[in-house]
C-alpha cells in the first residue's frame, strides 16, 4: 500500500488552482459582505422607520387626545372647571377655590366622559354637603364651535337634575372672551357674570369682596340693589360672606378662598 | 461567514486533500475548479465551529465527495461533453505506479472513496462510515470488494492484506 500512498502523494493542488480559488473566495466574501451590510442596513432602516412612524403616531395621538376643546365650569360654591378633549373626555381639571380642591381631591374624573364626570362630581359635592335644597347650581360651557353645545348642555342639566332635583339649575353657553376674562380674575365664568351684574347695580361692590359668595348670594344682592335697597346692600358687601355664613347651615358657602389650583396636567 | 484569513488558511491546508478527491472523480480541470470553489465557499459559509482539525478535514472530504457527485448529477454535465474532457492529466505519475492508479480509477466511486480514505488518509471503517454517512458494515463490504477487484486487476501483488 506504500505504492498507493506514493501515487496519491504526487497529486497536489496546482498553485494556479489555489490562487484562483482564493481570489474567488475573496470576491465572493466581499460581495456577500456588502450584501449582508446592505441587508443589515435595510433591516435597521425598516425598524427605524417603523419606530419613527410609531413615535409620530403616538405623538400625534397624544396631541389630539390632550388638546382642549371644551370647557365646562361648575359653580355651586365649589368652583371647578373640567377641560374636555374632542372625544368629550376630561383631560384636565381646575379648582377656582379651596372647596373646589376638596372636591377634585375626592372625585376621580380624569379620562371619563363628561356626562359620567358630572355625575361623579355632583355625587362628591352632595356627599360633602355643598348642595342644599335651594342651592343654585350654575354650569357654563364653552366650546370651539363644535355644534354640540346644546346637546351637551341638556345632557349635563339632566344629569345634575338626577342628583339634585330640588336645587335651582342654570346651564348656559359662554363665549371664549367671557371665560378668558373670568380666568384673569380667577373666577368661574358664571360667578364672573354674576359679579358683573352686581357691579352694574352697585358700583361700590368689588370683585375681591364678592368672590367668596355663592352665585345665589350674588344674585340676591343684585336683586336687592335693583330694588333700590342701596344702604342695606352696601352693608352686605362690606362683609357679605359673614352675612351669608350666618344664613347657611353647613357654612360651606363662605368657605372659599382666592387661590385656584390645577388638578392634573397643566394646559394653561 | 468566516474571515478572509480563515479562508486562505483552509485553502493552503486542505487544497491537496480536496485535489486528491477530485482527481479520483473528475476528469477535466474546469470541473475541479468548480468543485474547489464550491467546497471552499461552503467552508467560509459554515459558521459552526469544528471540534478539531481532524473534524474539519473530515468535513471537507465529505463536502468534496458530495460536490463531485453533484457535478455528475447536473443535467448540463450529463448531456454535454466538454473539450476539457480530453485534457491530459497534468500530474507526473511514475510508470510503475500507473497500473495501480489506473486500477483504482477504474473502480466504482464508492469503492474509490473507501480505498482512498482507508489506505491513504488512514481512517478506520467507523470513521469512513461517518464521513460517507453509511453503515459500518457497508464500508467493510465495499472495502473488501474494492480490494478483490484490485487484486483481480493487478494480479494480487499490491493487496496481500
Properties at a glance:
heterodimer; A: 268 residues; alpha+beta; rod-shaped; disordered C terminus; B: 161 residues; mainly alpha
What is the string of helix and strand elements of chain B? HHHHHHHH
Number of strands of chain B: 0
Structural class, from secondary structure content of chain B? mainly alpha
Helical percentage of chain B: over 70%
Number of helices of chain B: 8
Oligomer: heterodimer
Q: What is the distance, rounded to the nearest whole angstrom, between the alpha carbons of the first and last residues of chain B?
A: 45 Å
Mean pLDDT of chain A: 80
* H and E string of chain A: HHEEEHHEHEHHHHHHE
Summarize the amount of helix of chain A as a percent range. 55-70%
Strand order in the largest sheet of chain A: 5-4-1-2-3-6
Rg of chain A, nearest Å: 36 Å
Rg result of chain B = 17 Å
Percent strand of chain A equals 5-15%
Summarize the structure.
The complex is a heterodimer of chains A (268) and B (161). Chain A is α+β, with helices and mostly antiparallel strands and 268 residues long. Chain A has helices at 2-9, 15-65, 98-106, 114-127, 149-163, 176-184, 189-201, 207-210, 215-226, 230-238, 240-247, and strands spanning 70-75, 79-84, 90-95, 136-143, 168-173, 261-263.
Structure description:
The complex is a heterodimer of chains A (268) and B (161). Chain A is rod-shaped. A six-stranded mixed beta sheet of chain A has the order 5-4-1-2-3-6, with helices on both faces. The C terminus of chain A is likely disordered. Chain A is an alpha+beta fold. In chain A, 36% of the residues are buried. Chain A has eleven helices and six strands. In chain A, helix 4 runs parallel beside helix 5, helix 6 packs across helix 7 and helix 7 packs parallel to helix 9. Chain B is an all-alpha fold and 161 residues long. Chain B contains eight helices and no strands. The longest helix of chain B has 22 residues.
